[in-house]
Design a protein that fits this description.
single chain
Length: 422
């Protein structure tokens, strides 16, 4: 169980994940609590309802953006300079996390009446900044605030078009100068606006290397190693601490016990897996292409690290009900993707979601059997998986085509023991 402020942090991050995977309409309190590992009582203690949770996440994220924009403007005195710094801060805020971008740009419109004023407040602040252009020397006295409102609305629409897809955003050096051109033109004229197209992006804020919790990393590495060597059922806290080289007291400060330790790291692995699945599908339009890209990335995920593969696939069955629930939550997006095949079928009503669950269950049972016996996964497994997945929806001819499609160029076909290249 997650306690204290961690509940809010996990609910926050999980909401980003679920909205990105399912959309606002597909998120429920039960789903959020299961994914976050909190019970409904804990959720109700912090949030009045799901809309309240959406509101809190938007509030926190927009405050984070305001702080970043304020830092970007520090020491900048000119109107154009402050406007440019704000535009780059907004772009970078949206570009750094596709889940957050999806939440702010797409899902905010569906998140309820409480969220809308937060977004309107941010737009108003941008319009205020643009409207300062009327104070610039040589700005036309005929301009009104309506000019800033029109420019600000156009900038927001331009940003929404750039950010509202699952594709990577255009380069900042392409989109922000165009926004600045549109903002400067009414106030300072064509020559000053054209200058904006030639001004390079500001340097990114200097940041130190990411802070690594060395003690926690040692515990994680030792846990994965020992699970692979002995199995979770044969581990003790004392043995884990010895392998990790950490005092027992340090372990107790972090975890309530061995199960809590396993679940903490296991959930992190499943979150990584879900994000990889989402990233693998980016840029793919056709159902079979998205499914194939996901299947090959699943192969990469399992073939890159034998210890991690055992930890994720094998040990979840030994770790109890909670771990199995985390595993089921983690692979649910794959079942959702498989189930999209019904829309491709000549008779979508002839099949149900049970078809996707049967296919997905069969695939993971085969993977489990291989990893439990310490067998290396062959890259040839992916076309076989694709054959089984396509067959019920599109028939034998389309399924057979999957057996002839070569793997991506970054994978070596090594017969029965093909592995992902390093």
């Amino acid at each position: 169980m997650i306690s204290g402020s961690a509940e809010r942090e996990w609910a926050h991050d999980v909401l980003l994940d679920l909205c990105f995977e399912r959309g606002h309409a597909g998120v429920t309190v039960d789903a959020l609590c299961r994914r976050a590992g909190i019970d409904r009582a804990a959720f109700g203690h912090r949030y009045t309802d799901l809309e309240g949770c959406f509101f809190e996440v938007h509030r926190v994220e927009l405050e984070r953006y305001r702080d970043r924009a304020a830092v970007a403007r520090e020491g900048v005195t000119s109107w154009r300079g402050r406007l440019r710094a704000t535009a780059y801060a907004l772009y970078r805020f949206l570009a750094e996390d596709e889940r957050l971008r999806h939440l702010i740009v797409v899902e905010a419109r569906r998140a309820g009446e409480r969220v809308r004023p937060l977004l309107e407040e941010e737009l108003e602040a941008l319009v205020d900044l643009i409207d300062e252009g009327r104070r610039e020397p040589y700005a036309s006295p005929s301009l009104t605030r309506a000019t800033a409102e029109q420019v600000g609305g156009g900038i927001c629409n331009q940003m929404q078009l750039a950010a509202g897809t699952r594709e990577p955003m255009p380069a900042e050096g392409e989109i922000v100068p165009q926004m600045m051109y549109a903002a400067v033109l009414p106030y300072l004229g064509a020559a000053a606006a054209a200058e904006e197209l030639e001004i390079p992006p500001p340097a990114h804020p200097q940041e130190g290397p990411p802070v690594v919790d060395a003690e926690q990393e040692r515990i994680r590495g030792a846990l994965v190693d020992l699970c692979h060597e002995r199995g979770l059922a044969n581990l003790t806290v004392a043995g884990l601490c010895r392998r990790a080289g950490v005092p027992h007291a340090a372990f107790e400060r972090r975890f309530a016990g061995l199960e809590a330790c396993f679940l903490d790291f296991y959930e992190a692995e499943m979150q990584s897996f879900r994000r990889r699945m989402a990233a693998a599908q980016r840029g793919q339009v056709a159902w079979r292409d998205r499914l194939r890209a996901t299947a090959y990335d699943l192969f990469r995920f399992l073939a890159e690290d034998e210890r991690r593969a055992s930890f994720v696939v094998v040990e979840s069955r030994a770790a109890g009900e909670r771990a199995q629930l985390l595993f089921a939550e983690g692979i649910e997006p794959l079942f959702d993707l498989l189930d999209e095949g019904r829309a491709e079928s000549p008779d979508p009503t002839a099949l149900s979601r049970a078809t996707a669950e049967q296919i997905g269950g069969g695939i993971f049972n085969a993977i489990y059997a291989a990893k439990a016996r310490r067998l290396a996964l062959s890259v040839d497994l992916v076309p076989q998986m694709m054959y089984a997945a396509v067959l019920p929806y599109l028939g034998a001819a389309a399924a057979a085509e999957e057996l002839e499609i070569p793997p991506p160029s970054d994978l070596a076909v090594g017969g029965r023991d093909g592995q992902a290249r390093g």
